[in-house]
């Protein structure tokens, strides 16, 4: 029986395919804009400059200071650059950090956004912005934050380092895992989630063996679009709460933390959400936690939180913070069970679904 649901679709335009970077100018004009401030991290500055040359008079300049977790001080400098350049829209070229900066600008001045997404994190298709001030990360959700246009050009991901491709891909899968058992799940989001995981599961091993494989890069970006879309559509649960806690309070890196925690959070919910997880469990050999762990290990992903610099003595505090103001979760969030999960994730031991 189809259970009752409500379904909202986010109004974003998606342009997907090799060579679509060439269409940024057309998309700017389609939005009725004519002067784009181009955003990037310092690392991708050369790509941003090349895009500025490609855009000619449609470019209002490059701001290449995007940083992880969207510090509000960087946003303030970007807003000043936006105004000084007489810009009327932003083009974010990069991963979640750069996209976060574009969203932070749009949240403040409602500038239209074109995003050229170059990782698998999924931020480009969500109306969610996380920003940090004085070391505190807060999250806001607002329709203004959702980028109007997303360009997915797999050519730009050919050089995404293998290690980042793997952790970013597992980060995307985590959105899909939590989408199928979300309290506000719906059949369309669940279909997208399963298809997204299937695409990434097929693509990531090929990328590890052959990072410039165009077909696999296309499939991985397609999967990450689907996984990101469900992140923006339905609510997330224990896995995302754990990762936000570990990233926000212990400064652990975003994608790596998701990659390590995912098998353990999946195992935690395996029984409570067995019916919802069934299509994904089947993809991972009948054991979602163990199967994901084996998959991550086969890709050379990091497996232990201790390898990210987390101290064993911090696990109690991490458990306390996770159970404080918990997200809804299919299996009740019990402090002892969360502490045990964290211990296994810290050690990097293969999870047992319970
Ligand atoms: P990132 O954007 O921080 O990128 C990491 C590094 O890789 C950067 O130096 C970047 O310039 C570089 N890079 C990106 N794409 C590249 C490519 N194709 N080739 C070579 N180098 C490349 O990493 P991320 O994991 O995409 O984003 C993480 C951030 O995004 C976190 O702050 C996280 O909180 C946020 N995020 C937000 C949402 C949301 O919905 N609000 C969703 C997912 C992630």
How is this structure best summarized?
This protein is α/β, with parallel strands linked by helices.
Topology:
Blueprint: E1 13-16, H1 24-30, E2 36-39, H2 45-55, E3 59-63, H3 72-84, E4 89-94, H4 96-109, E5 113-117, E6 128-133, E7 136-141, E8 149-152, H5 162-180, H6 187-209, H7 214-231, H8 238-250, H9 254-269, H10 274-283, H11 288-298, H12 315-323, H13 335-347
Parallel strand pairs: 1-8, 2-3, 2-4, 4-5, 5-8
Antiparallel strand pairs: 6-7
Helix pairs in contact: 5-6, 5-7, 5-9, 6-7, 8-9, 8-12, 9-11, 9-13, 12-13
The structure holds nicotinamide-adenine-dinucleotide (NAD).
Nicotinamide-adenine-dinucleotide (NAD) is lined by residues 41, 43-44, 68-69, 94-98, 100, 118-119, 121-123, 126, 128-130, 156-157, 159-160, 164, 168, 231, 254-255.
């Amino acid at each position: 029986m189809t259970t009752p649901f409500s379904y909202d679709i986010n109004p974003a335009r998606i342009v997907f395919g090799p060579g679509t970077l060439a269409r940024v100018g057309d998309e700017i004009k389609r939005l009725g804009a004519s002067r784009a401030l181009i955003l990037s991290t310092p690392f991708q500055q050369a790509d941003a400059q090349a895009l500025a040359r490609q855009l000619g008079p449609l470019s209002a300049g490059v701001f290449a200071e995007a940083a992880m977790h969207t510090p509000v001080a960087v946003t303030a400098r970007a807003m000043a650059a936006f105004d000084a350049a007489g810009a009327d829209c932003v083009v974010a070229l990069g991963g979640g950090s750069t996209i976060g900066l574009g969203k932070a600008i749009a949240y403040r001045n409602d500038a239209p956004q074109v995003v050229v997404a170059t990782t698998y994190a999924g931020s480009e298709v969500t109306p969610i912005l996380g920003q940090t001030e004085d070391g505190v990360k807060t999250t806001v959700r607002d329709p203004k934050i959702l980028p109007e246009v997303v360009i997915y050009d797999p050519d730009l991901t050919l050089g995404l380092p293998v290690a980042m491709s793997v952790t970013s891909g597992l980060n995307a899968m985590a959105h899909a895992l939590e989408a199928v058992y979300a309290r506000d799940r719906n059949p369309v989001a669940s279909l997208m989630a399963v298809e997204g995981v299937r695409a990434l599961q097929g693509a990531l091993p090929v990328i590890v063996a052959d990072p410039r494989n165009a077909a696999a890069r296309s499939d991985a970006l397609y999967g990450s679009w689907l996984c990101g879309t469900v992140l923006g559509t339905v609510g997330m649960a224990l896995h995302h709460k754990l990762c936000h806690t570990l990233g926000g309070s212990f400064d652990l890196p975003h994608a790596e933390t998701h990659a390590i925690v995912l098998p353990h959070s999946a195992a935690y919910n395996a029984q409570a959400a067995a019916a919802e997880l069934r299509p994904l469990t089947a993809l991972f050999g009948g054991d979602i936690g163990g199967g994901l762990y084996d998959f991550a290990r086969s890709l050379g992903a990091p497996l232990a939180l201790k390898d990210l610099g987390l101290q064993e003595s911090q696990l109690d505090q991490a458990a306390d913070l996770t159970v404080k103001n918990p997200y809804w979760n299919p299996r009740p969030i019990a402090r002892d069970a969360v502490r045990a999960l964290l211990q296994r994730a810290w050690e990097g031991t293969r999870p047992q679904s319970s």
